[in-house]
Amino acid sequence: MISLRAGFNADSDRVWLALGLNQKIGKKTSIDLGYAHVFFDKAKINRPTNENPALQIVRGSFNTSVHILSVQLNHQF
């Protein structure tokens, strides 16, 4: 079966796990910290690279995960 999935962004179902905290560091200032990890299901690709599928076909699978770390400084004026 031919897949229209592109190799540069092999998308799949995913699960996000995230947590964060806020710490007050002054009367009008606080800092936010956050972390998220995204688990992707295994994605397979079977895609021709040309209009003629007999020339080249990209076949494979992707195991992807993402770590996201964020820091934010808040100040009230």
SSE layout and pairing:
Layout: E1 14-24, E2 29-40, E3 43-48, E4 57-62, E5 65-75
Antiparallel strand pairs: 1-2, 2-5, 3-4
Gross morphology is rod-shaped
What fraction of the residues are assigned to beta strands by DSSP? over 45%
List SSEs in N-to-C order: EEEEE
Structural class: mainly beta
Whole-number count of domains? 1
Question: How many strands in all?
Answer: 5
| Largest sheet: number of strands, sense, barrel closure | 3 strands, antiparallel
Level of helix content?
A: under 10%
Over all CA atoms, what is the radius of gyration? Answer: 21 Å
Low-confidence stretches: none
How far apart the termini lie comes to 59 Å
Distinct helical segment count: 0
Order of strands across the main sheet: 1-2-5
Please sum up the structure shown.
This protein is mainly beta. It has no helices and five strands. Helix content is 0%, strand content 60%.
